[in-house]
Amino acid sequence: MNKTLEICEKFYKTKDLSFEDFKYLMDLEDYADLNTYARSLAVKNFGRKIYIRGLIEISTYCKNNCFYCGLRASNKNIERTRLSKEEILSRVAHANSLGIKTIVLQGGEDDFYSLDFLEDLIGEIEDKYDLALTLSLGERSFEDLEALKKLGANRYLLRHETSSRDHYYKLHPRSMDFDNRIKSLFKLKDLGYQTGCGMMVGSPFQTREDLYRDLQFILKLQPQMVGLGPFIPHHDTPFKDYPAGNLDDVLKILSIVRIAKENVLLPATTALGSIDDSGREKGILAGCNVLMPNIGDEKLRQNYKLYDNKIGTQVENSDDFLDLEEKLKKIGYEISLDRGDYKEEGKYV
Ligand code: 5AD
Ligand code: SF4
């Protein structure tokens, strides 16, 4: 067994990876063995099937000012739009008609979506459809999170972005609160949400130590999902001149996360597909098992630009589905339209 495989095997068995071994993996020039090892764990847990989550972007308004994101409140150069309840419901109906069984409502931190609004919306979705509902609406009060869970939202995505406090404040203004972000993630788990954290790879000022800390954080939180992709600069942000995260680094860390938690739900993200034409396929071959095509509204798609050169991943009709199926088939995978709930024991149906 070569050294890469030895490290993978030891990490898989002990869930303990020294910084030295982490660095060894991250510095590999040829990391095919790392990807293969992780991929075989994904296949063991999920088969060669990729879960589809229908992503509906609901708002380009955001009260926050993350230095990296095109939706930041201070960016005056984007058109702000949000979907009404009826518009959201119409996209949910559309997703449902395509056979999609899990949807993600994602938006900036927009106070327009009050608890009342969301209660009403989720109530209607729950009444009409049998869908797994994921929210990705940023930090909210713990009371809100609890109420939304009771109503039927079962999953929540909230990337931690970085688990190093110093680094957090290099990416976010002081008006944002690192401790609250981390506390929110533990709260979401406590409340029984299938919880997703995640970080950008190659964000400005990120060191190998920071990334290693992210891995430790994932091991501690034990999230059901991890969303990670490369940082990509946006021209209207303070980070416009920083280089994008590196494809190889993303593919390595994806594999490392898969080995850390073999049954974690791990999407090959749009950002990954945006830095490389076959980035998402490469992500799957590195251990990912989820895709999140955009099934949202055209008016949001035009404006929902967190970073430059964001690829379209829309699935509008059954032809688009066939295209996606075709892409997956080329790498030996197929679409799964199951709900794809997290399973503790790693057995998925
Ligand atoms: N590059 C890559 N990812 C970004 N995000 C926001 N801005 C960028 C960017 N410039 C990610 C953040 C956020 C998620 C919704 O999108 O991680 O949590
Ligand atoms: Fe808002 Fe999220 Fe963008 Fe931060 S990353 S500015 S919270 S949309």
Mean pLDDT: 95
How far is the first residue's CA from the last residue's CA?
33 Å
Strand order of the largest sheet: 2-3-4-5-6-8
The number of E-state strands comes to 11
Binned, the helix content reads 40-55%
Low-pLDDT segments, ≥5 res: none
Bulk shape: globular
Report the structural category: alpha/beta
Q: What value does the Rg take, in angstroms?
A: 19 Å
- Helix segment tally: 14
How is the biggest beta sheet arranged? 6 strands, parallel
Bound heterogens, unique: 5'-deoxyadenosine, iron/sulfur cluster
The fraction of residues in strands falls at: 5-15%
Helix-strand sequence:
HHHEEHEHEHEHHEEHEEHHHEHHE
How would you describe this structure to a colleague?
By secondary structure, this protein is α/β, with parallel strands linked by helices. The protein is built from 14 helices and eleven strands. α3 packs across α10 (247-260) and α4 (85-97) runs parallel beside α5 (115-128). The longest helix has 15 residues, at 32-46. The chain binds 5'-deoxyadenosine (5AD) and iron/sulfur cluster.
Short description:
The protein has 349 residues and is an alpha/beta fold. It has helices spanning 3-14, 19-26, 32-46, 85-97, 115-128, 142-151, 165-171, 178-190, 208-221, 247-260, 270-275, 279-285, 298-301, 318-330, and strands spanning 49-52, 54-59, 102-107, 132-136, 155-157, 194-197, 200-201, 225-226, 229-230, 290-291, 334-336.
